[in-house]
Amino acid sequence: MTNYNRNSDVVAMDINSPAHMVSFGKKSGCFISKTVGWLLAIFFVSALVATGLLVYFYAPHHRIMEAPVTDTERLEIFRNAPNIATTKTPTTTTIITTKAPTTTTTTSTTTTSRPTTTTEAPKEEKINVRLPNTLKPLHYLVKLQPLINGNFSILGYVEVEMEVLEPTSNVTLHMADIITKNETIKLRDLNNLEGPELVIKKHEYDREREFYLAHLEEELQQGHKYILSMEFTGLLNDKMAGFYRSSYRNAEGNKTWLAATQFQPTSARRAFPCFDEPGLKATFEVYLARQENMTSISNMLINETLPVEGQEGWVWDHYDTTVPMSTYLVAFVVSDFAYRNATDIDHVLFRVWAREAALDQTEYSRKIGPAILTHYEDYFNQSYPLPKQDMIAIPDFSAGAMENWGLITYRETAMLYDPAVSAPVNQYRVALVVAHELAHQWFGNIVTPTWWTDLWLNEGFASFVQYIGMDHVEPSWKVHEQFILDKVQNVFSEDSLESSHEISIPVGHPNEISQIFDGISYNKGSSIIRMMNHFLTEATFRKGVSDYLDAFQYDTAEQDDLWRHLTTAAHQDDTLPQDLTVKTIMDTWTLQMGYPVIKVERSPDGTTATVSQERFLTVKKNDSEDTHDYKWWVPLTYTGGDDPNFNETRAKVWMKDSETHITIPSLPTKDQWVIFNLQETGYYRVNYDQDNWNLLIQQLLTDHRVINTINRAQIIDDAMDLARAGQISYDVALGLYSYLGNEVEYVPWKAAVNNLAYLRNMFYRTGSYGALKNYLLDMVVQLYDSVGFDNSLDDLLLEQYKRNTAVDWACKLGHKPCLDNVLNLYRQWMLNPHNETIISPNLKSVVYCRAMAAGGEEEWEFAWDRYLKSNVGSEKSRLLRAMGCTNKLWLLSRFLEIAFNTESGIRKQDSQLVFSSVAFNPIGRPLALTYLNNHWKKIYDYFGGKAKSHLINSAMSNFNTEQQLKEVMDFEKKHRDDLDAASRKVQQIIERTKNNMAWMDANYQTIVNWLEQKGYSSKLRSVWVEPQP
To answer: Which of 346, 850, 891, 938 is the most buried (most CB within 10 A)?
Structure first.
């Protein structure tokens, strides 16, 4: 092992003061600050105890570090970490080495050592965070030894083979939370391996851009290949980013540690220095050191396992070299988890991993995963390229899941399912997430966006294709109908704001990148891809996608590349005119924000219609600074009441972005309705003239089944949002609801109650809420009575969904039979806590929440005990969410106080869930906002110096008063410097609050008057009237 000289280390940490950096000048000697003087003294003391430390760190043992690690503590960990035993092994390049299990002899020429300089890069007002275009990585050799049961340091070694694209005198890599061992950093020309090493005259770390720079005495030659190697020390952090630590309690109750990765979008640099941009693909050869009582997995299969020299009980797992891939897809897990093989797939090793106690919960994922993967091979007409596919459920995970190539990592709730405990919605989520991540193995992994600007190509495609995978394994779920609720109607609200953004949006800084992992990229992206699938036809779409994947296999691409291949397929199949391209159409949907509302004005005889388009905004502002003229290429589909046909979803007419209006001929006569946007395949809303709205209402009342199920949901959703925007009256919009007593399908009912939720939120703190509540209750009780309270697990998924919706709304609105039922079930459960059959999993969320609201400390403490005891992730989440439903302020306060404390039993990944459960409780919302304001610094630091937009949004959603707007504005002003990662969300909250205020001014009294006309009033009598006997 090498003995490192600490004085020349580059510290890539979040240290604010330049005094922490050491500057070594060639001519002027060494200058250090007082702080660094103390650090050097500590280094000296550390050297005296090095032998003891080596024994300590390498002997197998358990050392639990419970408290969050500060920057100072990190430095102490790194300074005292032992040297890693590096074994330079051959890469795919030609390098003169003699390979042995633990030693290597390398032939080299001695070079003259020169003084080096380490400085902090000067800051710029507007920094460019992109790497220079001078070098391209070809291959990485990565060796990591995570001290999971020690002090959580990572001992690392990396070699990067790279090609020079342009002459350059420096090598720039990404690096964060890493200490390099500068005396080990070597740079060689692969065309002259026996020649001298290139001289590095200065090492530099740019904290703002997270760059390591090696400044060279001579320029690298264009076309030559070089290899940079270095040793370094990193940290298994507790931030769920990079290479991080997680833990769980085993059967004996002992805390057990594991290490896992989450690199997307910009955290591979926290595990090893690298070119951490998606467009810079390379191959990876990985070595992971582990203790013999643990296992490791990575993207590829293990090639060989070798002992770690001088470290009894430790071995190296050496993995096969990967295919070319982006850094964010590299993954490692070191744990004591167990796994099961899938047996119904013969050409790919398919394994599911989990904690031993949760292994039975992997059965559903193990069943559907291989079936979805093989279906995608047929769909994309391209075989899965790796020899294996692992899926693993991690106890602590920041996202839902991550598509690492060959090693998909999941939050437990997204992969594990227990049919005796988990609800149907949990099974749906597992299927959805598994299908989503497997879709990424093609869209995102085989072909990757050149830069995060086109993130939507990754997430939009996976979010569309996931429904194809789900439908293959669960055809009875009617997931293509649920797409409308999950994606289209869900994102319409966000995209109707002026503060929305384009799908394809330029981003640079990691804070900007993280903000576009949002509804626009996922939901709007998938919605416009679904629109393409319909206007091109399924066959043409699949042909174009398959050709695109073949053309850019193991490479990167931009959206124009996809447009080109889809256009070629469309012209070959005559599904688009030869003079029209996909780019012409789709650029209007990806390069500008928002979407249109299509206005259909029929002629007096009904046989023609004038169709126009304009951007749909919830509130149009006369003083808007956005002067862009929004127009789209719109695929118009339609049918009429004389001969309804909802299956022809190819565009009958294209409305160009240059046209203000067009005329549609050959429509039915005025006594027959027309419906545009069949099956809501187009990403737009539709408004009609008053006569056509009346015809639609009449048809729904007469026989709603004549209209397609999806279009019934579309008509309700469009009408309610058009009324909200002041484009039609609430008489029309609410008039549509009168047919719902005859509706038996889930999707229209869910669209209806989703829109009623807005009215309820706006009215909740007003004097007329009682009238609205009685109106809603009369409507919902119809559904409640039709589906019944008692659940049967034999019912189809959508029937169970419909029952959950009915019971949830009936109890929420105070329907006594419903409340009696849920309270009775909860009390029975309290008496028999080990009986999992008392409450149907489908109704648990409603029963738990309503019991908390009606109960007190006893009910709450029982739920907390069940949370601590449960072994099922979905059940733990459900209980946490329900505990926020209590009406006891002191219980809510206590809940908030433990939410951001890792010692409380609440995982960091679940702290946002706890906070939002309190914030979405009308009684708890003021409490949550006050807590967020008063403890902002604590919460901000808890998440690693990141503002969490979900916390802010949940604390301020549904605001609709001047005072509440002031609270939002004050919050934004007070914490502006900390909101880089949530700035867009804060602007959307401000806009939504203003829009809600405008809605209250324009519509509150209108709704009150409408309710009174229907017999629902909250007015109090002014004169006492004696009750009739």
So the answer is: 850
- Please report, as a single letter, which amino acid is at residue 161: E
Half-sphere exposure of 828 (CA within 13 A, CB side): 13
Q: Parallel, antiparallel, or unpaired: how do β-strands 634-636 and 401-402 relate?
A: unpaired
What pLDDT, on a 0 to 100 scale, did the predictor assign at position 464? Answer: 98
Distance CA 474, CA 797 (A): 10
Taking each continuous run of H as one helix and of E as one strand, the counts in the chain are 32, 35
Q: How would you class 342 by CB atoms within 10 Å of its CB: exposed for 0-12, middle for 13-18, buried for 19 or more? A: buried
Burial class (CB within 10 angstroms; exposed 0-12, middle 13-18, buried 19+) of 340? middle
Q: How many Å apart are CA 145 and CA 1012, to the nearest integer?
A: 71
Share of the chain above pLDDT 70, in %: 87
pLDDT at residue 54 above 60? no
Peptide linkage before 265 cis (omega within 30 of 0) = yes
Identify the burial level of 389 via C-beta atoms within 10 angstroms of its C-beta, where 0-12 means exposed, 13-18 middle and 19 or more buried.
buried
How far is Cα 889 from Cα 918, in angstroms, rounded to an integer?
10
pLDDT in tens, 968-986: 999 999 998 888 888 889 9
Phi-psi domain of 608 (left: phi exceeds 0; alpha: psi -120 through 50; beta: other) = beta
Average pLDDT of span 305-322: 97
Bridging pattern class, strands 178-189 and 10-12: antiparallel
CB atoms within 10 A of CB 963: 7
Can you give the C-alpha Rg of the chain in angstroms?
31
Q: Alpha helices, DSSP H only, in 788-946? A: 797-812, 816-831, 844-854, 857-869, 873-883, 889-899, 911-919, 925-934, 936-942
Give per-residue pLDDT as tens, 722-781.
999 999 999 999 999 999 999 999 999 999 999 999 999 999 999 999 999 999 999 999
d(CA 526, CA 488): 8
C-alpha distances (whole Å) from 778 to each of 731, 740, 809, 1009 are: 18, 11, 11, 18
Structure token pair of residue 59: 């002997």
Catalytic residue among 183, 437, 481, 967: 437
The closest alpha carbon to 32, from 17, 22, 43, belongs to 22
Q: How many CB atoms lie within 10 A of CB 44?
A: 9
* Calculated CA dihedral for residues 709, 715, 720, 722, nearest 10 degrees: 150
**Residues 428 and 444: beta-carbon distance below 8 Å:** no
Q: Does residue 617 carry a pLDDT above 60?
A: yes
Contact (Cβ atoms closer than 8 angstroms) between residue 585 and residue 592: no
**What DSSP string runs through 970-1014?**
HHHHHTGGG-TTTHHHHHHHHHHHHHHHHHHHHHHHHHHHHHHHT
pLDDT at 887 over 80: yes
Please say if 494 is a catalytic residue.
no
**pLDDT over 90 (residue 944):** no
Q: How confident is the model at residue 125 (pLDDT cuts 50, 70, 90)?
A: low
Examine the pLDDT at 59 and tell me if it is beyond 80. no
Quickly state the pLDDT bin for 1029 (edges 50, 70, 90): low
Q: How far apart are CA 303 and CA 301, in angstroms?
A: 6
For residue 403, give the nearest of 353, 335, 459, 472 by alpha carbon: 459
Task: For residue 897, give every residue at least 6 positions away whose Cβ sits within 8 Å of its Cβ, in sequence order, or none.
Answer: none
Q: How many residues does the chain have?
A: 1029
Quick one: 976 exposed, middle or buried, by C-beta within 10 A (0-12, 13-18, 19+)?
A: exposed
CA distance 442 to 329: 12
Report if pTM > 0.85: yes
Single-letter amino acid, residue 535: F
Q: Is 125 exposed, middle or buried (0-12, 13-18, 19+ CB in 10 A)?
A: exposed
Asked if 353 contacts 339 with a C-beta cutoff of 8 angstroms, the reply is yes
Contact residues for 864 (Cβ-Cβ < 8 A; gap 6+): 879, 883
